[in-house]
Predict the 3D structure of the following.
Amino acid sequence: MNIHVLAASVPDRIVPLLAFFATEKTPLDVPASLAKAAGRLTSKEFKGGDRQLHLLQTADLASLKTERVLLVGLGKPAGITAEKIRRAVGGAIKRISGLGLTSAALQLTIEQLEPAVTAAILADYRFTRFKAPQDAPTRLESLTILLPPQTDLRAARAIVRRTQIICEAANFTRELGNLPPNVITPATLADEARQVARECRLKCTVLDKATLAKRNFGGILAVGGGSANDPCLIVLEYNPTKAATKQQPIAL
C-alpha cells in the first residue's frame, strides 16, 4: 500500500472516497462544503457510535475533491483509545474494499496516525495465493492521510514508515502461516528465510537433519520424523553496524 501524507484539510488530487472520524454528541469536524449535507443526517442514520459507518455521495461538491465521504464513528469522546481507532479504521478499510475502490483518503490527527496506519495495512491483507485474478478481492493500493495544517510532516512520515515496516512484516508472516503444509515445507520455509536475510542484511543459518542429529536436537527430529519432509532449524541473526547500535533493536 502506498501511503501519502499531507498537512491539509482536503486531498491534493481527486480521490474516490474521503473518510472522517466522528464521535457521539459532538459536531462533525468536516469542511464547510460538507457541513450542510452532514448536518441533515438524523441520529438514526449516523450518530458517531463506535465503529458505525455512513456513506455520503458527494460528487456534486467539487471543493472536496472526492466522490464519496465515509463517516466513521468512534463512540464516546472520553473513551477513545488506540484500539478503538484500529477497530474503526479496520472496518472502514473493509467497507472501502467492499465498494471496489483502490484508493481513498483519511483525515487524522498525529495522535491517531500510528493506530490508523496499523489498522489500514492489517485490515487490507487478503490471502489470495490460490485464487484466480478475477476472483481476488479488491485491495487498497493508495491511501492519502490528511493531517492538520501545522503538523510536522517529517515526524509524521517517520511514524508511517516505521508502522509500515512492522505491519508488512506481520502480513508476510500471516501469508506464510496461511500456506498449507504441502506448500510451506521446512525446506521452502528455509528458502523464504534466506530471501528475507538477503533483503534485510541478516545472517541466515539452516541446520539440516544431519546437523540436528549431530547436535542432539531430539525434539525437532522426533516431531519431524512423522513427516515425509526432513526437518530443519532456521537461525536468523541481526548484527547491526556501530552506527545502528545507538538505538535499541526491535525483534519480532
About this structure: The two ends are 21 Å apart (CA to CA). The helical segments are 32-39, 82-98, 110-124, 153-178, 186-200, 209-214, 218-224.
